[in-house]
Amino acid sequence: MEFRDLDRHAFYAGHPRPLAPSSGSFESIDPSTGKAVCKIHSSSPKSVDAAIQSAQEAFPSWSRTPPVERARILQQAVALLREYNDALARVETIDTGKPFSETSTVDITTGADVLEYYASLVASGGLNGESFRLRPSAMVYTSKEPLGVCAGIGAWNYPIQIALWKSAPCLAAGNCMVYKPSEFTPLHAEYLADLYRKAGLPDGVFNVVYGGGDVGSYLTRHPAIAKVSFTGQVSTGMKVAGAAAGGMKYVTMELGGKSPLIVLPDAAVDQAVDVAMMANFFSTGQVCTNGTRVFVPNSIKRSFERTLLEKIKYVRAGDLFNPATNFGPLSSKVHYDKVIRYIRQGIEQDKATLLSGGLEQPANIPPELKEGYWVQPTVFTDCTDEMSIVKEEIFGPVMTILAYDTVDEAVQRANATELGLAAGVVGHDIDLCHSAISKLEAGITWINTWGESPAEMAVGGWKLSGVGVENGKRGLEAWVRNKSTLVEMGGSVPTSFSKL
């Protein structure tokens, strides 16, 4: 498997559809160079209808396939993902601008882990219901039934990982999917669809459509769609959830965050800085769970800043396929402009102290990459809670340091947001760590680390950061509906209409 700079078209009923009607096209851009890679044809309503029809036709057979047989096919897809890991990682690097050192060790691997987890879960009885004796002559049993044809709408920051996080439980539960990748990072979708086909997935079980918000809206509102799983920003997610709710559809929403990281007073400064850097600069800060509000005790603030300035030198931008590179460009020109506006806002309007970084490109960017969407890892300190760079999600490598005096004060300020995706603490006293975590209003939390989300760990946001969870056993429940059956075995039916 290798990257092909060919036009992309809708994929349904087991094949790409170059002759399918489209509603225009757009270019996929390599963010490291700013140059076009290939053309993507937006799927017309007729193409979306055809993809949904393909899924509808595949659903009866796939939903009746025994879970262990579905699992065998999905496990074969896992094997192919691992076999083609580096080739798929190269595609992700070209599409997202992430260094190959990251995509080759994280993006495909973590997606394959989730697919393997759900295949193993359904093969070992994860879809079993329960049964109980109601009375001597009656029993009740339940079953978990697939929903039908589901829509998956992906995000641009972890394209293939998110596609697998959505399709793995969906397909394992016996559903079919029509998947729309982000228009900013669409290259993975056809490769994943083709890989599923090679693994033995029946035609029509996994389908792909392309386009922007108009395609996503049409897909969401389609009466044949039983569920919508969306990952993206809060404002878009609220619209998607509203449209889906109007059609009584199931939803899973994984939305944005402005997550706090609290460095406790007894934390080792060196460790705290390492966690803060992972929480802000991994994937060039383009992670929804990033801990961009870093609360540091006044007592160690200066030491924390000195150590951070020493370690930020280890953030290395450059050739994305150089093993030493660990920091890439932002994913698109639109997003680059947004992040630069926020950095300028922090300097000129918020008047925060610029500790490191700023508006210029990172040093030592090769000449051939100068047109890419590069920014420096940026740190503001002496920040206050009302600053725009502190309150609003930037989704870039911009850390804000906020000083505090007491842990209770830090927790209260950390919770003063409409968002609640993630939170974390760093400290030596594990009892204090657990106490602080228990008070933080977020659905995903970490102690003395940041960012790891294994397949077994259900993750999802509180407040405006989401609805439902992904991954873990609870993640499978989001793709099934319950059926309860009462069985009367007494040979007679109690009735109010007996003869007097």
TrEMBL record:
Active site, per annotation: 254
Keywords noted in UniProt: Metal-binding, NAD, Oxidoreductase
Enzyme Commission number(s): 1.2.1.3
Record-annotated membrane-spanning stretches: none
InterPro entries per record: Ald_DH/histidinol_DH, Ald_DH_C, Ald_DH_CS_CYS, Ald_DH_CS_GLU, Ald_DH_N, Aldehyde_DH_dom
Name this protein carries in UniProt: aldehyde dehydrogenase (NAD(+))
Enzyme class name: oxidoreductase
Catalysed reaction equations from the record: an aldehyde + NAD(+) + H2O = a carboxylate + NADH + 2 H(+)
Domain Aldehyde dehydrogenase, first and last residues per copy: 22-484
GO molecular function: aldehyde dehydrogenase (NAD+) activity; metal ion binding
Similarity annotation: Belongs to the aldehyde dehydrogenase family.
